[in-house]
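Sequence in, structure out. Go.
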Amino acid sequence: MTLKRPWLHEVDAATAFFVRRHAMHSDAFEQKTIRLSSSNDGTLWKVDRNEFDRVYNQELDDKYRTVRRQAADIFSFHPGDIQIVEGFTDATMLRYLVLHPFTRDVYVDVTASGVVEKVYVWMHPSEVCKQNDRVTRVTLDVSNIATETELHELLNEQLQFPSHYGMNWDAFWDVITDENGLPDIVELHGWTEFEQRLPEAADALAKCFTDYENEPDLKPCRIIYHQTEMLILPSQALKEGEANRLIYRHLTGEAFPLRVERKTSVRLPKRHRFSFERLEEESVTFGIVHNHESIAPWLTLSRDEHCQDVVTFSNETDWLVSYYREGLTLQGTNIESVESIDTADYDTFFRHVTRGAYPIELTFCFGGTIALSETVYRLTLHDAAWEKLIEETLLPQLKIPKAKRFRQSFSSTTPVQSLETFLGEFHPHIFGNFVLAHDADDVYHFLDHVNGSVKRF
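Output:
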């Protein structure tokens, strides 16, 4: 049998017998019955977790945690349980199972025709999983930490380290990589101030968290750095009325009253026909908004092409929003950098995006390569197959031909560009290009060279 699944590796006969012998069907826990696989004579394969990126699936997670509350270390999913059918190639469900914090190993039975027939999940001991059978969140307020010793004391207390914790970075790594690991979510408040006050300690802590996230065998943990980030959204990225909605959403949670300023610049006509000088007049209006209802009158911008309005909202310490005809600039701690622009590409961008709820609305702009900056393409993603969406829906709209060979006749027909060429040539790094994603949970991801990273907000 030829397997075209690089994430499967054949296991030895003893392991195969052990897994099948101790497997319990997920629909028979109350009766505690034991059945053997119908394909005992077939080859058993182990799933390589290093081949997968982490994903989250609420429906599967609920089922998984229900199974975990039963007294079984190995259980099996039927094809119907995880929707594995004839010709199965999508590994999304397996990706979730193999990277769940309760999972030790995942095995699959494959028939002679290459169809995945049954999936076996070998879990950690029940006592370990019961401790983790809930979403755990820890908040670390580092805004007032003045020394590295104070930082380790905070980590020791909030993360509930053992009494023998050595109060140094080697000891910190040893503790977070034991069988308990980190919580599901760690939030760091006041990170910007902390970085400025103790840069070496901040670098050491961030490096430990990054190394932890890159270890496939450790329990997944999402690290949230609450720091002040800036986000610049061009107007063509937003649908009608979306800028106003984002302003309201961004100001939710801010302490009113807020200070608002409208700066208006007017370009005057030339003094005479041959003059290159066009003087500008500028006026500034100040105001105070006491609640969300009083924001609306400030969000109307002039439609005169010679008039430019910039409306800025500020709190007691800094500005929060700038709204103008060309776009929208947001600043605050609810904007998160999730990937450096130096390493980000379409693959890394959609790895973050597809963790959200479907459907996901996508907006592409290629103003830096093939079109005017105002030309945008809006698509809807219903599953993780974003490459298929680009190839089958976006590329036909772009109608970009492949480059002709030197000896090819200029009158001959050229084929439509391939996905591979598109991903290589029309990258969002190029000036004027961007990609914006908005999922069903109202979470945005934005990839733009101006920001210097992939932003989530």
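Check: The chain is about 25% helix and 25% strand. The radius of gyration is 27 Å.
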